[in-house]
Design brief:
The protein is α+β, with helices and mostly antiparallel strands and about 180 residues long. It contains 3 helices and 10 strands.
């Protein structure tokens, strides 16, 4: 039991550290069609992609190319305000080479996180290395409520933060609170 507690503590600390380093990205136009997904370039570099789900905008799609054994650690966060006050519930499904035909939907959790002055709920994470080289696809799906989500991907530090974009994301996050 103690080993499990230590492992979970180290995992959460590692997740928190990696989340601090994610560069914000806005998916303002959305990507509600499977044939027009939002392309994630350089998925190894840490990114936090913000989007909105609501009735009529049930899903958003992403795509990226990755090498075999890449450890990109996709994570789905919901803004705590959206989760607690607007009832937002969402999940992601990862599909691609070497994964089951129906894709992989990681276990759903509800872990509160406080990152850079904002409250989030971590609902899913996929920590396994990718099984094959190729194009991967992610579907972020709303199951209830509405609000802002953050899809994080990549583990490599990325120091290319545009201050104007950071301010825009901070304003968007603050509006949701």
């Amino acid at each position: 039991m103690l080993r499990l507690f230590v492992f979970m503590t180290l995992l959460i600390i590692g997740l928190f550290r990696s989340l601090r380093l994610h560069v914000p990205v806005l998916n303002e136009a959305g990507s509600p069609e499977t044939d027009k997904p939002f392309e994630i370039k350089e998925p190894n570099l840490s990114k936090a992609i913000y989007g909105t789900l609501k009735p009529g905008k049930e899903e958003e799609y992403y795509t990226f190319f990755a090498e075999k054994e890449a450890k990109l650690a996709p994570i789905l966060l919901l803004m705590a305000a959206s989760y607690n006050h607007k009832g937002l519930r969402a999940t992601f499904r990862l599909s691609g080479p070497g994964l089951p035909a129906e894709g992989v939907t990681p276990d759903v959790t509800a872990k509160p996180l406080h990152i850079v002055g904002h409250d989030y709920i971590m609902v899913q994470s996929f920590m396994s290395p990718l099984p094959e080289t190729g194009d991967y696809h992610v579907a972020v799906q709303r199951t209830d409520g509405a609000g802002l989500y953050c899809f994080c991907i990549g583990t490599a530090e990325n120091n290319q933060i545009d201050p104007a974009l950071f301010a825009k994301v901070a304003a968007l996050v603050s509006q949701e609170a």
